[in-house]
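Task card 7
Instruction: Convert sequence to structure tokens.
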Amino acid sequence: MTAEAQTEAIDPVRAEFDVEYYLATYADVAAAGVDPFEHFMTFGWREGRNPSKRFIMAPYLEANPDIAAAGVNPFAHYIVTGRGEGRSLKIDLGFRYEILKVASSLDERVRALRESIPDPEPTDVEKLVSALRQVGAPTRLHVTISHDDFTANLGGVQLCLTRESEAMRALGATHIHLYPAAPGLVIEFERLNPMVGVLINGERVGVFSPETLVERLGPFATGMTPTFAVHSFLGHGIVAMTAVLRAMDAKEGFFWIHDFASVCANYALMRNDVAFCGAPPPDSPACSVCLYGRRRRIHLAEHARFFQTFAMTVLAPSQAALDLWLSSFPVRPADAKVHPHAKLRKRKTDGEGGDVGGPLKVAFLGMPAPHKGWPVFERLVERFVDDPRYEFHHFGKIQDPTVEAKFTAVEPAPGVAEPMAAAVEAAGIDVALIWSLCPETFCFTAYEAVAGGAKVVTNPDAGNVPRFVAETRNGLIAEDEHALMALFARGDVLSLARRDHGRTLYSLSYSKMSADFMAEGLS
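Output:
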């Protein structure tokens, strides 16, 4: 081959080689000060290094074994001849197949978590005694139970608990919060006495055995009939929590439907982590083929026993969540109510739109997790990233660097009002893709997207989200992933641009959770 022919073959390869990506990914090459392209063409491809985030070596070789056998540079082959031959960049059986391929059993996951985060040693009981003594003799007592220490972690449930705690204390009640000292994927039933963490009026006291809590909290609650609210039993032994509440002479309480852990060991109702199951009967074939099937029966039985012990009022943040829970749970509660976590309150309407003639700004909000629809967004970006009609963004706490979307770090923070809505507004996002594969009981991100001036695109299985979109007329519902791709391919989604619908901005008016039902009696 002449030098001119070699140059003609190399030039298109160099044009698609991502120098910035290569230097950022491989620090040794950057430190060596060599030409990154020359390094890749000489050494890098033989070492399995990737030339860009769009071309990953291993899956290309897996999809094209003849190229692997030939021992040629895979990237150069793809650019020069493979793309023209219609070669695939990877074996694409869908993200659901990839999840199933690497899935471990639920028992293995539970065991791995317990081994990595064992129960801590119990705190000296005198610290609990001292903390209770400092409270004195309250006349009102409110107990909450959830899956973690809401003062140490940030998220939707934690923010709900923060509001409930503040509201109860404003009403003069002492607030005791109980959480598992070691996190759990499911409710605890193998161990009789998992350690329990204790907060009193938002202050961490320590971790104690259920027996210690029975011995100390029972006398503390003498003369009171405490109210209580269960936000989650994940990580707890329900039998142990029942004993603690009975020792305090609790009789009736609230049970929040933040998720569906009371119905199945998979709180999102995802069969084998890949598809919404619809919560079929626990003895159905559909459950028998699911890795959560056996523990689902345990979750149902333990929660049902709890509901038979106490008079429980179920509180759901949406009608969609309540309907699904009532159709799936074996025991009828004493009462059931819909109580939204927040409502939209209009704060500004004007004719300002997005950039006239600019691309449609499409964002994914939140964690890049499969059950939240991240693989669907990933596929959307992959297909349309070079389409000048669209610009892709990701707002959240954790970035996936393999996806070519502009990342903006956003996470809940105490004292910061609606940071996601503010980020959506500031960036001028037109469309938020809320593509949850499981039924959302509420979905703050959908409300925050609309509050920031964006429209929402979702699917029929996303629980409260499609109801919210339909009722408020703030977006589109695509039937499935194929319909979603078609919306973008045809350009139908462009009708949601801010420049076309103007901009209406909202704030969120938050509930006080369980305290809203007790304010009159406690005031």
